[in-house]
Design goal:
Elements: H1 2-19, E1 27-35, E2 38-46, E3 50-59, E4 63-74, E5 77-86, E6 91-101, E7 104-107, E8 112-115, E9 118-121, E10 135-140
Antiparallel strand pairs: 1-2, 1-10, 2-3, 3-4, 4-5, 5-6, 6-7, 7-10, 8-9
């Protein structure tokens, strides 16, 4: 009985290790966007299915929001969340949507709600990309 249990645990360990993405399969890209006097920098590691990295928004003479981003990629859309410290205050989490269009990333804007105490965009409501606050352009690959 113990041998079967041990073999079962070994098989589970092997399957779970093989299902994780290898860090070497990610490409790092750095984007920057400017809106009036505010500047945003997005440094992400990206593959065909996922992304993760660092996002920072510098508000002119006010402060900054700085933290981590992560999420999934479906087609030309990157959707995930931004977990950050707001202007040096407390930790916050907001949903993030970016549309890849002509080698640029457009920051989406939508109605935010909570689901199981996590913020997300309201299902069934479109995310607006036409009047993006930030349009990110690649500055380093």
């Amino acid at each position: 009985m113990n041998i079967k249990y041990l073999l079962f645990l070994i098989v589970i360990a092997i399957v779970s290790c093989n299902s994780k993405d290898e860090k070497s399969k990610y490409n790092q890209i750095v984007y920057q966007a400017v809106n009036d006097k505010d500047t945003a920098t997005l440094s992400i590691h990206i593959n065909d299915k996922r992304f993760y990295g660092h996002y920072e928004v510098l508000y002119h003479k006010i402060g900054k929001d700085s933290g981590d981003v992560r999420g999934d990629i479906k087609g030309d859309t990157l959707r995930g969340d931004f977990h950050f410290i707001s202007n040096g205050g407390s930790w916050k989490r907001i949903p993030l949507a970016l549309l890849k269009k002509e080698d640029k990333l457009l920051l989406g804007n939508g109605i935010i709600t909570t689901y199981f105490n996590l913020p997300c965009f309201m299902p069934g409501t479109p995310i607006e990309y036409n009047n993006a606050k930030f349009v990110f352009e690649e500055i380093r690959k």
